[in-house]
Design brief:
Elements (H helix, E strand, L loop, with lengths): L1 E6 L5 E5 L4 H10 L3 E3 L1 E5 L5 H12 L3 E5 L2 E5 L10 H6 L7 H8 L1 E5 L12 H9 L3 E5 L2 E5 L8 E3 L5 H12 L4 E5 L5 H12 L3 E3 L5 E5 L4 E2 L2 E3 L4 H13 L3 E5 L7 H10 L2 E5 L2 E5 L9 E2 L11 H9 L4 E5 L8 H7 L5 E4 L2 E5 L8 E3 L3 H13 L3 E5 L1 H5 L5 H7 L3 E6 L7 H11 L15
Parallel strand pairs: 2-16, 3-14, 4-15, 10-11, 19-20, 23-24
Antiparallel strand pairs: 1-24, 1-25, 4-6, 5-6, 7-9, 8-9, 11-13, 12-13, 16-18, 17-18, 20-22, 21-22
The structure holds uridine-diphosphate-N-acetylglucosamine and phosphoenolpyruvate.
The site of phosphoenolpyruvate has 8 residues, from helix 12.
């Protein structure tokens, strides 16, 4: 089992480059199923475990994917199967994003139920409601969801009960090849939705309104492969901004987009962090004691739930009491117990966590209970006295490219320990091997090895 070991106390300084966004590249890869001619070329694809998992699903459907550096070439001219493999879908919820494109391209799809996961139950009712409104027949059985349609899906007006990111994406993709126009109301407005719409339009789709609460998709008869560059990962960027703040350091986060990070920037400024964005990134520095703030997670443009755990780590070392309220997922406080193992003073009352500032964090053994919890453990470790050992690194590998390596380059005392080599796809294994040697001079990870 791999571990990341952090010794607290170093002020971070220098420049860190943000990788392509996990939550943008996954729907973009799934959307490639819509291209019945030509090849897609996806640039800035982060070499992450989740990208490998969705690639596994795509290959099982007959799609060809070739990697070179951080570029993926995808050819979906021949779809040979509409059945997604159980193991890959169970491993990662976002695999369910192949449902919409498969159904609309082939008239049928059979996908294992993605199930719940640690942070909440995460139902898919809004995805299915959308497909049904477009004329699909949905049946559930033996752990699978089957969707079928005679002829093409038909455009429909769909009001989402919650502005679900995944449902908005799945319905957008299904609607791209439907007959007529689909209107999604109460749509999610995340930057990743805009990125997907841009890709769909480059493929010949007709999507308007992405980034607002109402998205209109005029169906087209066919789509083709396209060239696309994935947006930078705003959650990774926010994590490095907090790493700078928690160590009282000074870091330039290259690739961070101010517009995507407004709710995070606003809270950091309220705390006293100096934020200076320019056209290529964001400079973060701290020159006064930080003060606690209250944070409530909400769909975009509210404060992102994917930054809640990292923000909690920062609030622990700030002055005063802060309240963090999680409204998006019902069980996203598992990091609280782990932070307590580092001497954090946090009380949970329902959906709120009350954080006592100026906690004297002490290094210890903690577990990454999910992806962002893992990031929070590393951040807390950077500020703690002594050594912090983070296990459950496979969660972190889902969403951060070379986190130990990037932090080491900023001056953190951190390294990755691969106690027993895990059986990994070779591209990811290589990327993680580069991170595994003891710090601090490590080669910058350049992406997927040639397949
Ligand atoms: C791969 C990806 O992009 N993952 C992101 C995506 O997940 P994901 O797309 O799964 O998240 P959703 O936006 O769908 O979920 C938001 C809320 O809606 C509820 N819901 C969702 C679908 C549905 O059919 N019914 C329903 O009730 C969920 O239980 C949750 O409470 O958005 C989340 C919210 O910003 C992020 O934390 C995840 O990192
Ligand atoms: C919850 C997350 O991802 P996923 O939806 O893939 O589980 C995340 O990125 O923090």
């Amino acid at each position: 089992m791999s571990k990341i070991v952090v010794r607290g106390g170093s002020k971070l300084s220098g420049k860190v480059k943000v990788s392509g966004a996990k939550n943008a590249v996954l729907p973009v890869i799934a959307a490639s199923i819509l291209g019945s001619t030509g090849e897609s070329v996806i640039h800035e694809a982060p070499p992450l475990d989740d990208v490998m998992t969705i690639s596994e699903v795509m290959r099982a459907l007959g799609v060809r994917l070739d990697y070179s550096g951080e570029t993926i070439r995808i050819n979906a001219e021949h779809i040979s199967c509409c059945d997604a493999p159980y193991d890959a879908v169970r491993k990662m919820r976002a695999s369910f994003l192949v449902m919409g494109p498969l159904l609309t391209r082939c008239g049928e799809a059979r996908i294992p139920l993605p199930g719940g996961c640690a942070i909440g139950t995460r139902p898919i009712d809004q995805h299915l409601k959308g497909f049904e409104a477009m004329g699909a027949e949905i049946s559930l059985g033996q752990g699978f969801i089957e969707a079928k349609v005679e002829g093409r899906l038909r455009g429909a007006k769909i009001y989402l009960d919650v502005p679900s990111v995944g449902a908005t994406e799945n319905i957008m993709m299904a609607a791209a090849l439907a007959e007529g126009t689909t209107i999604i109301e109460n749509a999610a407005r995340e930057p990743e939705i805009v990125d997907l719409a841009n890709y769909l339009n480059a493929m010949g789709g007709k999507v308007r309104g992405a980034g607002t609460g109402v998205i209109r998709i005029q169906g087209v008869a066919c789509m083709q492969g396209a060239v696309h560059t994935v947006i930078p990962d705003r959650v990774e960027a926010g994590t490095y901004m907090i790493a700078a703040a928690i160590t009282g350091g000074e870091v330039y986060v290259e690739g961070a987009i101010e517009d995507h990070l407004k709710p995070v920037i606003s809270k950091l400024q309220e705390m006293g962090v100096t934020i200076e964005p320019d056209e290529n990134g964001i400079h973060v520095s701290v020159n006064r004691p930080l003060v606690g703030v209250d944070v409530k997670t909400l769909p975009h443009p509210g404060f992102p739930t994917d930054m809640q755990a990292q923000m909690m780590a920062l609030l622990l070392v700030s002055e005063g009491t802060s309240i963090v309220t999680e409204t998006v997922f019902e069980n996203r406080f598992m990091h609280v117990d782990e932070l307590r193992n580092l001497n954090a003073q946090i009380k949970v009352e329902g959906r709120s966590a009350i954080i006592s500032g100026r906690s004297k964090l002490k290094g210890g053994k903690v577990c990454a209970t999910d992806l962002r919890a893992g990031a929070a453990m590393i951040l807390a470790g950077l500020a703690a006295d002594g050594e912090t050992e983070v296990s459950g690194v496979h969660h972190i590998d889902r969403g951060y490219v070379g986190i130990a390596e990037k932090l080491a380059r900023l001056g953190a005392t951190i390294y990755r320990l691969n106690e027993q080599p895990e059986a990994k796809p070779k591209q990811v294994a290589k990327a993680q091997e580069e991170e595994a040697s003891e710090f601090p001079i490590l080669p910058i990870q350049t992406g997927f090895a040639r397949a």
